[in-house]
């Protein structure tokens, strides 16, 4: 694949499958391993952190589904109004018509959950980290699915998972310290 238009990287299919599987396994291990540190820092049980993680994962999945649905509704409305291909006139219209509604919907779910669903003894920083880890889990699931379908473009999600894994390792090294600025 072409890495940032700098150079080409060639590797066989089996190497890509092994790399993707290792990154996915490492990501899952880091996620569940970091729950121990979070539970110890917040002085709550491991199961409480895992439960909050799955709530965060569910909210993330619902938010993404709503974002996709809302973008499709925008496409149907544009088609009904006779402007189905109006985004061809200006490239920025793609962002305004489809990406903005998607981003608003995907951000709205976590914001509303954090605002209105209070959790005793779990710090706000921990809840935000759980949302980031839920997003990492979604990317890992996409990576595994694309790798299983033998689609060569899986490297795009591999890069995302590698950076998520690196940031999780850094957070584990500093033991999820709660810095207040």
UniProtKB/TrEMBL annotation:
It comes from the Eukaryota. Keywords: Membrane, Transmembrane, Transmembrane helix. The chain crosses the membrane at residues 14-37, 49-80, 92-116, 128-149, 155-174. This is Endoplasmic reticulum metallopeptidase 1. It comes from Culex pipiens.
